[in-house]
């Protein structure tokens, strides 16, 4: 029997008998206390919190992840990882990416950006095409992280949106490169040299950077790579956490 409780410090008074194996003030069971001090397993333990559910907002994953959903995400990740490297490896100077399926996805978004930015003046109208094709996936990324409009948070989908933004930046690089010596065929069937100039000829011309177009294009291409690597690292971390939770199937959690 402890004369003084090791937990609350209550000192047993003379004649205070009650239960000699338990502190009369806080109820500490002395035998269990000694077991814990000696490293012996306790008889009861508090239930462990759901794994990884309380991580930071960017690394949040559901506490229960169904196996089909997890392996489906792995397949999507592998596809985007391989395709992303293929797009990045395409030659910037020859605008090889302009013949890719990704460019066909980005092109209508690019053209919509010109229209959306008309109220902001001629310079922003020219820049708006390239700007919007990068901004749109970033807005979607934020919506998946924060769950805008009552939608369910999905960080893995957000990582795919960041990957899309990276591809959109890589897609812009050949357009910037072409500004110095225009050879790229535009939608109107003419090159920038045969027309009044395309977006990046006018943008870099206004900024006095037309002679540094290749340098700016190289920086855009490198930025696309950095963003792509960040997206892939983020997605891989989320898949790791989901791997730890896979098989904990529960209807409605990760359907």
Subunit organisation of the chains: single chain
Could you say which structural class the secondary elements and strand pairing correspond to? Answer: mainly alpha
- Overall number of structural domains: 2
The sequence of SSEs as H and E is HHHHHHH
Question: What fraction strand?
Answer: under 5%
Question: What is the element layout, followed by pairings?
Answer:
Layout: H1 30-37, H2 67-89, H3 101-116, H4 122-146, H5 155-177, H6 199-207, H7 213-245
Word description of this protein:
The chain is mainly alpha-helical and 255 residues long. The chain folds into 2 domains: 1-46, no CATH class; 63-245, no CATH class. 54% of the residues lie in helices and 0% in strands. α3 (101-116) crosses α4. The radius of gyration is 30 Å and the shape is elongated. The two termini are 55 Å apart.
In short:
With about 260 residues, the protein is mostly helical.
Quick tags:
single chain, 7 helices, about 55% helix
